Amino acid sequence: MHSDWALQVAHSECPEFAAFEAFACEEESERYLMDFLNTFAHEEDGAITVDWVVLSASMVALALASVASVRTGIFGAATNMATSMANINLGSTP
Predict the structure, then answer these.
(1) What is the reported pTM?
(2) Cα 45 to Cα 55: distance, rounded to the nearest angstrom
(3) What are the pLDDT digits (tens) for 18-28?
């Protein structure tokens, strides 16, 4: 690795060196990005998170489907109960 002073001298004395260094940095960046993407693609740590997200979403969907299917029956039962309770005659109180 060059020191800052050595880079300044190299840039001032040889403009081709600056162009080569920029190309080398660009090539190194591409290599770093490819290594990062390759590592990311082969890691399995995030797979468990995805599994839990899918499992949780399916449980929420199942709960919503259950509530939707039972909802009409519950409203009917509540209406019948309210009508029955309203028709109860408690008589007169002393």
Answers:
(1) 0.40
(2) 17
(3) 555 555 667 77
